Amino acid sequence: xxxxxxxxxxxxxxxxxxxxxxxxxxxxxxxxxxxxxxxxxxxxxxxxxxxxxxxxxxxxxxxxxxxxxxxxxxxxxxxxxxxxxxxxxxxxxxxxxxxxxxxxxxxxxxxxxxxxxxxxxxxxxxxxxxxxxxxxxxxxxxxxxxxxx
Length: 149
Fold this sequence. Notes:
Elements lengths: L2 H16 L27 E12 H5 L4 E20 L5 E7 L1 E6 L6 E4 L3 E4 L4 E5 L6 E10 L2
Antiparallel strand pairs: 1-2, 2-7, 2-8, 3-6, 3-8, 4-5, 4-7
Keywords: Signal
InterPro entries: Cupin_2, RmlC-like_jellyroll, RmlC_Cupin_sf
Protein name: Cupin
């Protein structure tokens, strides 16, 4: 192989790996997207604290009546559960600050592992629940639009 050919091959390999579409951590694999009935899903919380750390009345801010944008800090202990709930009409983004947690989602045939630094998009009417199968607490920041008081 000539030097020019080798340089061209290296450049092609670098270009292919540099410009390829990114694979996002913490999402359902594309080939595993399917309806999941979530049979036997837990319905009660266990080992989880949920603290509102800030909120904005969207009626006053952008004329969206009876809605708040809020951010919560959730700490899910080992073995802890965030029970089955729906995101119909309540979009959210969940950031995993530390630890890791497993999500069971109505639109994914396999569990989704969220590690520190991952963000989960909760929208499109999905239902899901989360379980901390790890040995350390998991800290999450949840920002959602919900029906306010």
